[in-house]
Protein 1
Amino acid sequence: PGTAYVMAHHSIGDVGDGQLGSWGYPEGGMGAVSEAIARSARSFGAEIRTKARVSRMLVRGGRIEGVVLENGDEIRAPLVVTTLHPRTAFLDQTPRNELPADFVSDIEHWKTRSGVVKINLALAELPNFTADPSSGIAEHHTGSVEMAPTMEYIESAFQDARAGRPALAPFSDGVIPTTLDKTLNPDGTHIMSLFTQWVPAEWANEPHTAELDAYADRLIDLYDQVAPGFKASILHRDIVGPHEMEVEYGLIGGNIFHGELSLEQLFHMRPAPGFADYRTPIAGLYNGSSATHAGGGVCGIPGWQAARAALADQKKGRKRFRRT
């Protein structure tokens, strides 16, 4: 279903808690969500380690026994939940001989391409749009600020990337969270976050710094046309391309959903047939990544469901999980 599914995904978000427009901003930024989860976990006695990358899973006879960190430390545990990209978790960290061949093949063929570029801007002032001028925060500043004037415009941007070049006129979905969350800008400046497309999927393989700068320049010029003075108001900019997403955040291919939301990668196929219930071929190892249903996006459902599956199995004393 491609774009139709993504449209439905966003529509569901609009009524996710019975209230229209329930997609929202956490006060303090996205990091505030992580901090809230961390506080809750610590209140139950959890120990949280940072800068402790997992090197490999400890597996014996099809059952998880813990993990080994890059520094050599071993952490023994009868239950492990991974939220990493499935290629990282199952192809890099888990011994291949402990996994069914068909499962390995499914993960090897998991599609995880992307043409997304994230652009973060610090602004001295809010953009003043010629279509709806305002002297301060207006209602349209608190919603999405799209750069997508026509369907032909969007299609042209996509076809540019298919042809191996960055979009001449990129699509952009922009938001200004500081219009709603004053904790982010106590000095009165603003932050604008742009989700943009498209660049070639191959850009995930290596940095394209100069080309990304030019790409951002073109998009900023387009915003400047509809909001004169926008370009001059930029205090700082941060450009994150597919390669940076993969290297810095573990998003292979730069795909923010841990895998494409295409027909063959949805519902019972996410991430592999027979393993869409947050369990894996390894007993005691659970998958709570965005590559499970209902990823992607920041909804917390995969992790919540993985935790529920783990708790249910503990109660039942379940030993192994194999594809049926």
Note: The mean pLDDT is 92.
Protein 2
Amino acid sequence: MPDEGHLAPPQSIKRRIRPSIAQKLNAIAVAERTTVREAASTLGFPEGYIPSWMANQAKLKRCRDVKATKQNTGKSGAIRIIPDVHGLVTYMKDLRRQEMAVTSSHMLQYLRVDQLDWIEHYMRSRRSGYHSLRLLQHFAERHGFWRQRICHQKKSQEELEATRIAFGKQFHDKHPAIDMDVLYNSDETGMYYDMCSKIFWAIRGGGSYVANSKRHSYRMTVLLTVRGDGKK
């Protein structure tokens, strides 16, 4: 056994070789011209593979037009359970574009409008309602949503972006000679901690802001400084 100071390096995972039918036929042709061992050494295939390919040569020749490994095409993978997938995802994204919280209850309310029969059938086929909750959670995760804590802001993202652009234009028009590496922008912002543990589904990579949300938590002020060239 290696001592504690000299641990053995981890063994690399050896992946299974999956040649195409055209590669198998080529290996058979090389083996017939030379030997099985030489064909395996030249083409890089295990020596034990080629004899089995030669035994199935007639079957492989019937598929000689196939030049790649067989791929999963058509109806493959898991069967979709939730109906109207596109409509539900669009509804969830529309709520987030309006900076509204998206929860599993919102998803269920959307499905109740046109898919009430499916909901009742699904609930009867499961031992507990918790399976329905997990189904909606997995659906949100698969379609680009993840759980975040609710964050409140007084203005929308569009208003904040317009304010930022207007201030930047006004500042550079007034001070055109200032270099970016000597320009610092400092801003105070409130930071909340010990917040409530309520979470919601947000678009992965998007914001977590929710309009008209209220939180009872501790707050502290943080000073953020960034240089004009992007270095903090």
Note: The chain has nine helices and four strands.
Protein 3
Amino acid sequence: MKRGGKIIKDDITFALRRYFAKKENVPFAYLFGSYAREKQKESSDIDIAVYLSGTPQDEFFKCKLEFKTELEEIFKKPVDVVIMNSAPPLLNHEIFKDGVLIKNADPSLLSDFRRKNFYFYLDQMYIINTYLKSTKEKIREKLR
């Protein structure tokens, strides 16, 4: 798994594809973060995002812990697992933008989820930008 003492992106994606191929409740999954961007450090954790299908929401945390524990055993380093179904739209947007698609067993579901998330993302960005604009105006007024 390591080359020259360093885990590389290709090794991670290969291992993740093998791991998630067996997970029928995960129709799609991504590697994201520093390993996806190939900007990792020795201390970096491995960031994984999964979409759960056919899993009740009250079992999301259990699945997250299962994936985290099993993947940390495989990689021998910390793994952070994000459940995309319940993640904020801004985080999902970053995952879609910079992530590496590991599994896509249901392209239609992935496409639909990406589209819906994009609309939620735009809504949130409008709110954030409106807030920032208002805050900047208040600061300018106080500086006058």
Note: The first strand starts at residue 2 and ends at 3.
